Amino acid sequence: MKKPFPFWIAHRGAGKLAPENTLAAFRLGASYGFRAFECDVKLSADGVPFLLHDATLDRTTNGKGPAGELSWDELSRLDAGSWHSPAYAGEPLPRLESVVRFLLANGLALDLEIKPSPGRELETGEVVGREMKRLWRGRNKPPLMFSSFRPEALQGARESAPDVPRALLVDTLWRGWLPMAQALECEAVITNHEVMTRAVLGRIHGAGMRGMVYTVNELKRVKTLEGMGIDGIVTDAVDQFCPGS
């Protein structure tokens, strides 16, 4: 990493304590002392980057169907909080720009997962890279990293924002995952914690990259990973782990 990235990273803002990928979740995560956050970004039909994990709207909003088929005007009117609990009823989907403003104002680092709608991988990476190059500005700005399961999305970000560190996300150890990370000039590999072993971490470190994991919520597993020499942990359990540790 060009700048040291915090060890603890809050998943989708505040894990599961608030509606994921909303500003409310980021505020809650920050209230627990987290200094780094992970979230998911994709494009509206008219090319506006906004936060959402799934390809469809059904699980975390009152909308239906593919998220990438609606304009930002349509998306901005959806309720992204009621599914979680009544306290968050009316919480909107945030634009990437709104989240960036909050993070920069509070000096918080960002692992931005590029989560493209199917068929828009390269485009999403390019647009997100270009937007972050415009938005993530100022003196002493906190660390920023792009991550994605989709190599095409990372390639797009590499083309539009080559100076931003990249990380390949790996759910299973598919053939060629490490050479792919090297070809994309990634500075980190972030794996499902269940596939991370001392040997896998050794391969990552041997290639000159940081080894990080998602999504770890049990103290016993944290201790095992720390014993391996893991470089970073993404967690939902923002109320259980001290981010200063």
Number of strands: 9
CA-based shape:
globular
**CATH class group:** Alpha Beta
**Tally of individual helices:** 8
CATH level 4 superfamily: Phosphatidylinositol (PI) phosphodiesterase
Order of helices and strands: EHEEHHEHEHEHEHEHE
Based on CA atoms alone, the radius of gyration comes out at 17 Å
Strands side by side in the biggest sheet? 1-2-4-5-6-7-8-9
| CA-CA gap between termini | 20 Å
Helical content, roughly? 25-40%
CATH architecture annotation name: Alpha-Beta Barrel
CATH topology name: TIM Barrel
- Sheet-strand content, in percent, reads 15-25%
Structural class, please?
alpha/beta
Describe the structure.
This protein has helices at residues 23-31, 72-75, 96-105, 121-135, 151-160, 177-183, 198-206, 219-228, and strands at residues 8-11, 36-43, 49-51, 109-114, 144-148, 166-170, 188-192, 210-214, 232-235. It has 245 residues and is of the alpha/beta class. The protein has one domain (8-235): Alpha-Beta Barrel (TIM Barrel), CATH 3.20.20. Helix 8 (219-228) links the parallel strand 8 and strand 9 (232-235). Helix 4 (121-135) runs parallel beside helix 5. The two termini are 20 Å apart. The mean pLDDT is 96.
